[in-house]
Amino acid sequence: MSIRIATFNIENLIARFDFTGFRNQLRSDRVMKLFDIKSEADYQRLEAARVVSSTDDTRQLSALAIADTGADILCLQEVDNMEALKAFEYGYLFRMIGAGYRQKYLVEGNDGRGIDVAVLMREETRDGEPIELRDVTSHAALTYHDLGLYHPGLGSNIQPEDRIFKRDCLELDLRVGGRPLTVYVVHFKSMTNGRDGADGRTSSMPVREAEAKAVRHIIENRFGRDKASQRNFVICGDMNDYQEKVDVIGDRRHGYDYVVQSDLPSALDVFSHDGFAENAMQRRDPLDRWTLYHARGPEEQHLCQLDYIWLSKGLAAANPMAKPDVIRNGQPFRTPFPPGQEVERYPRIGWDRPKASDHCPIAITLHLP
């Protein structure tokens, strides 16, 4: 008996307009900056038209990428609310795959923009085994003080009573064909601008490390520290960190070289350093583990894995040959692919947009012992 699990940062599945760009240039879309817009009312009308005109293409591409995962359980990040999720599933996914993800779960979390983690599930697997929800738990209210994770290195703007998770850690207790499976869905702190002379990834890493420790605490508290790694659990989501990256050197005109940098310091060492959980993406070739292309001009560009399905030690041992699939067909044409990885992009994919997302969905088929 097997089940297929996927995770995808769908990027801004939002059911509202953001008009703050009129007063805050950092929040204004680049195309709006090309025009001299005199009044806020004019800005609102133009911004609404821009968003509506671009959203349909974007969501069709997102739905295509999800359909290609073939997932029984789909973990999503950056979902505005349940109504937005329902509208997307019915208006887009249903048209791609028919009746499928009838079980939907989302709990409002801590993100200031209102983007949450969510789960879509089929009622049964492709093999006909029932997928039953026993319980769903949000851990968004946990504070640094609750788990003893506060320290000054988190930053001067963080206090002991602040909530640990920047969004949530959503826990789903499932039975699949009568066998237990627990799914944890997260979206860790983003790599923001640097401070105190450190780059954004380094300066924000203590917060992600605290989030990872909190996830591990939740799991060990539930199953017992000595037994947890042998239970059937997966940790899914956009973790905004990586343990390795592929530097992309060059440009379109002269071509690219790809250089792997391994064993980088990472908040995700909390999961891997003692074998508590396994990143099954490590079973793929080092040049073929990436889920996102990052670029700030030709001098700073790399491929890295930000999206994960961590397997418990026991689940990894029961699935020694299982490798995640990475769906890259929704990537924009600006994303450079290492040799041999080229795919046929979906129709209407652009140089930068439209696109399915900056992130690639990943999916893995697992046998539950």
Overview of the molecule:
The structure is a single chain. With 369 residues, the chain is α+β, with helices and mostly antiparallel strands. It contains six helices and 16 strands. Strands 3-4-2-1-16-15 form a six-stranded mixed β-sheet, covered by helices on one side. The protein has a six-stranded mixed β-sheet with strand order 5-6-7-8-14-11. A hairpin with a 5-residue loop joins strand 12 and strand 13. Helix 1 crosses helix 2. The protein is globular. The model has no long low-confidence stretch (mean pLDDT 95). InterPro entries: Endo/exonu/phosph_ase_sf, Endo/exonuclease/phosphatase. Keywords: Endonuclease, Hydrolase, Nuclease. This is Endonuclease/exonuclease/phosphatase family protein. It holds the Pfam family Exo_endo_phos. GO terms for molecular function: endonuclease activity.
Largest sheet: 6 strands, mixed
Instruction: Report the total helices.
Output: 6
What distance separates the N and C termini? 9 Å
Encode the helix/strand succession as letters.
Answer: EHEHEEEHEEHEEEHEEEEHEE
- Residues in β-strands, percent: 25-35%
* Cα radius of gyration in angstroms: 20 Å
What does the average pLDDT come to? 95
Please tally the β strands and state the result: 16
The parts where pLDDT drops under 50 for at least 5 residues are none
Q: Tell me roughly what share of residues is in helical segments.
A: 10-25%
Overall, the morphology is globular
Query: What's the arrangement of strands in the largest beta sheet?
Result: 3-4-2-1-16-15
Helix and strand content put the structural class at alpha+beta
GO molecular function: endonuclease activity
InterPro entries: Endo/exonu/phosph_ase_sf, Endo/exonuclease/phosphatase
Pfam families: Exo_endo_phos (PF03372)
Domain Endonuclease/exonuclease/phosphatase: 66-359
